[in-house]
Amino acid sequence: MGKPRVFVARVIPEEGLALIRETCDADIWPAELPPARQELLSRVRGVEGILSLLTDAIDAEVMDAAGPQLRVISNLAVGVDNIDLDEATRRKIPVGHTPGVLTETTADLAFALMLAAARRIVEGARYVQAGRWKTWGPMLLLGQDVAGAALGIIGFGRIGKAVARRARGFDMRILYYDPYCREDPAAQELGAQCVDLETLLRESDFITIHVPLTPQTRHMIDDRAFSLMKPTAVLVNTARGPIVDPEALYRALKDHRIFAAALDVTEPEPLPADSPLLTLDNLIVVPHIGSASVATRGKMARMAAENLLAGLRGERLPYCANPQVYEAGMPSA
Ligand code: NAP
Ligand code: GLV
Question: Is 114 a member of any domain?
């Protein structure tokens, strides 16, 4: 029997790629940019497995283009909003993802962005680079204190909790909003209080977003949400761009209705160089690097490869985003 054919949508760290090459006939997309739609549709034809990135929309059209032998989709990300999960489930195709291994790395970035926006670090660095630093100034680049402030966490899952652990070290008051204010032992341990979204928006000095992108969370942060925030509030988004309405964000920052924002994710992504958002001094944007450490990307690649190979062998994926696929027994190998 020949090796199973798979399409790998980008060159990923060797920790994963080596495993895939050993056992598969792998077509690896070599370019820096993702395959264009037509290219993706043509490259997946006849494959049994797809290793996708969050930049690849994997929907019914892609699954049809691949054909009925497609047995597994493995996403190199924890978020799976780029994949039509219902469609995959309907076709009994398990979808793998990479939860956990990127939690601390992403929480580090969220906290770094929070500190950077609060203390105007990027603005300060630009000021020095531009040769504008003449003296110590009593009114120069005044920011907001992080220590002792109130932190509102939207989405109290793995990354939300990891941010809360960091906030404890800064003596912050921690509020969180999650669909169910259920008994959560982690919340008690962290001294975190579950509140409704409106209370969180009104009372927080810093607001950090850690929900998945779903129909319920799309544009969750809109004009109304900004109108509830303190004028000194700092918003950080390391989850998914479309959770924040970009036009409402522009208005809130431009009119100084909030103090600052910092984004790792944007709508659209990438943000065009002529986006009005990039004209604002009180906004920091970095290019979706939440999980971008050498070690974490290696672990993600390995995990994504393990999911892919398990699916090809007809075994249960170690990290499956649509476990319902197994409800009526295992998909056929
Ligand atoms: P997670 O553990 O599943 O946490 C998500 C939390 O959000 C869960 O507690 C979930 O509650 C809650 N939630 C879902 N819908 C909600 C809603 N409508 N309102 C309030 N809370 C809601 O996921 P994670 O590992 O922390 O990752 C979170 C997200 O971060 C990912 O989906 C991904 O989009 C993003 N991410 C970005 C980067 C980056 O590079 N910037 C890196 C990693 C992850 P339930 O469990 O009850 O549904
Ligand atoms: C990155 O954004 C992820 O979802 O892993």
Answer: yes
CA angle 269, 219, 167 (to 5 degrees): 85
On whether residue 130 sits in a domain, the answer given is yes
Q: What is the DSSP letter of 123?
A: H
Per the structure block, which two tokens stand in for 6?
Answer: 């798979």
Record the pTM: 0.97
CA of 72 to the centre of ligand 2 (A): 19
Same domain, 75 and 145: no
From first to last of its 333 residues, the chain has per-residue pLDDT tens of 799 999 999 999 999 999 999 999 999 999 999 999 999 999 999 999 999 999 999 999 999 999 999 999 999 999 999 999 999 999 999 999 999 999 999 999 999 999 999 999 999 999 999 999 999 999 999 999 999 999 999 999 999 999 999 999 999 999 999 987 767 888 999 999 999 999 999 999 999 999 999 999 999 999 999 999 999 999 999 999 999 999 999 999 999 999 999 999 999 999 999 999 999 999 999 999 999 999 999 999 999 999 999 999 999 999 999 999 999 776 655
Residues within a 6 A CB radius of ligand 1? 78-79, 99, 102-103, 106, 154-160, 177-180, 210-214, 216-217, 238-240, 264-265, 288, 290-291
Supply the CATH number for residue 91's domain. 3.40.50.720
Cβ–Cβ < 8 Å for 118, 145: yes
Ligand nearest to the CA of 108: 1
Domain count of the fold of the chain: 2
Any domain includes 242: yes
DSSP summary character for residue 34: P
Give the structural domain span for 17: 5-101+294-326
Mark whether 120 and 260 lie in a shared domain.
yes
State whether 217 and 115 are in the same domain.
yes
Shared domain check, 173 and 259: yes
* CB-ligand 2 contact for 244 (6 Å cutoff): no
- Residue 213 contacts residue 243 (beta carbons within 8 Å): yes
Distances (CA, A) of 190 to 106, 173, 181, 194, 266: 19, 10, 15, 12, 30
Asked if residue 40 is part of any domain, the answer here is yes
